[in-house]
Amino acid sequence: MHLDPVDQARRLARQRFPDALAVLLAGSTAAGRATATSDLDIAVLIRDGGETRRETIRFEGRVVELFVHTRAGLVELFAADVAARRAVLQSMYAGGLVLADPDGEAGRARALAEADLHEGPPALASQVVETKRYGLTDALDDLADAADRIERLAVAGFVLDTAADLLCDHHRGWIGGGKWLPRRLLEADTVRGAALLEGHLHLCESGDPTLMIDAAAEILALVGGPLREGYRRSWHGVIDSVAAGTGR
User: Fold this and answer.
1) Neighbours of 76 (CB within 10 A)
2) pTM (predicted TM-score)
3) CA 20 to 30 Å from 112, out of 3, 82, 186, 243?
4) Directed axis angle between helix 105-119 and helix 71-83, to 10°?
């Protein structure tokens, strides 16, 4: 028997969180794109003194991802998502379907989320951009030279991630991982993002890296161009990867 996922979410909210300040359904189900196997992404705002946590459960046969937080916990998580340039929880509150909201807390949380989304993520530090340019320059050289198809695919994955990160940062756009990488990339730059994604797909299907190299090189030109000789980095404190450029 097929169970309506929105009805399931409402029953879960009533049964497991009857005293919640607010409950929202997000993800593909809230957007009307759910399939029979889609999980439920549910944000739950509880009273202070409770436990802020993420938890995975199964309810009526369906996997449920719970994002449970107090008011203070929500503020902290919003700040962490902004610092990570991802805004996952903000997107849930801004676009989620309200399942329970006895005192208007969902609206107040949504306003905070929308303010963060409107402001956009912080820009990457110039040193981080420089290191990512260096890493991408090196990876494009490797992509052009790679004869082994498995190595070529591995390098292509790094090129996709790094070029997407630089392009999103250039436009002060949010980033994402997994299925959210192409979504965020296209939100940031429809034309260049699509060219990068199509180049990656073409490489995966044909082994030809030309289109991906061209698309990534165009993104690289936006942020200062290739960087080889002249790159210099001194280590202070935590040592991070020169290629990945994850330090802030």
Assistant:
1) 13
2) 0.87
3) 186
4) 10
